[in-house]
Amino acid sequence: MDLLTLAIGIGLFVSLAFAEFFGIAAGGLVVPGYIALQLHRPLNILMTLSLGGLTFGFGRLVSGVTILYGKRKTAFLLLTGFLLGALVQEFLHRNHLVFSAFSPTLSDSEEARVVGHIIPGLIALWMDRQGIWETICVLLTGSVIVRLALIVILGGDFQP
Length: 160
Description:
By secondary structure, the chain is mostly helical. The chain has helices spanning 3-22, 31-36, 42-63, 70-94, 96-102, 119-130, 132-154.
């Protein structure tokens, strides 16, 4: 089985467990699986969470001017997160040499990136529904649990 598929499957289980036992979501059902595979790259996680927060803030700003709720809000946040992620990814890709000068540990094949395409939008959606800190804390906790489960299942030499 492919590593991403396994991580998402375990993440689904962990997300559902958090929702059932604690009544709080881990930023969307698939998000902990994606984040778990990036725990060794904290810059990627920080960028993704920051984009989620920026998307959330932009959604709040637009909500004050227009009617934005339900499916419309969900689609708006997912699309905004996707577009912001694509813009940031393009900017990082074009300026990789500039950023690698500041971070000598970054190799040419390992440029900083946003995790997933819709992950920032899903994070923003759950920040809006249940709160910023609740979402971040449960997301990171769930991701660590998924990562630990992957290590147990795949053995000690697990490399994402």
